[in-house]
Amino acid sequence: MDVYFCGSIRGGRSRQPVYAALVSHLERGGHAVLTAHVAAPDVLSDERRYPLTEIYRRDVRWLEVCDAVVAEVTVPSLGVGYEIAYALHQAGKPVLCLCQAGTSLSVMLEGNDTPNLRVVFYHDMAQALAALDEFLNAR
Q1: Any idea which architecture 2-137 has in CATH?
Q2: Domain spans of the chain, in order of start
């Protein structure tokens, strides 16, 4: 599958190792991660090389063509929220939101009953990866 991965970039990079583990797992599973760069430690400096409109258009194009969206939402991010809403309501894509247990998540995600949205709270990486595999295998 072509997977669009979302994780906070400008909102904070504290979860970058988690993003890297999720992207690596997806790639080992044979999936193409269109946004694998989100998991890179130097994504902020790489992002500065491109005009903002170019990044926006590229990401929207990827949201349109992907088979599914996986978002790690523990760190709040306006961009990730926008990508999730676009994927669900504009592109009609299935979306998995993974969130570290104990995090206070926005009601706009946790209370959202949109059929294509699944929100999973995980305690450890094994739980996150199991939820990820279950989500993708259901497609």
Answers
A1: 3-Layer(aba) Sandwich (3.40)
A2: 2-137
Place of tokens 């583990």: 21
pLDDT tens by residue, 107-133: 999 999 999 999 999 999 999 999 999
CB-CB neighbours of 26 under 10 Å: 22
> d(Cα 80, Cα 71) in Å, to the nearest integer?
7
Distance CA(118)–CA(138), nearest Å, equals 12
pTM: 0.96
3-state secondary structure the chain: CEEEEECCCCCCCCCHHHHHHHHHHHHHCCCEECCHHHHCCCHHHHHCCCCHHHHHHHHHHHHHHCCEEEEECCCCCHHHHHHHHHHHHHCCCCEEEEEECCCCCCHHHHCCCCCCEEEEEECCHHHHHHHHHHHHHCC
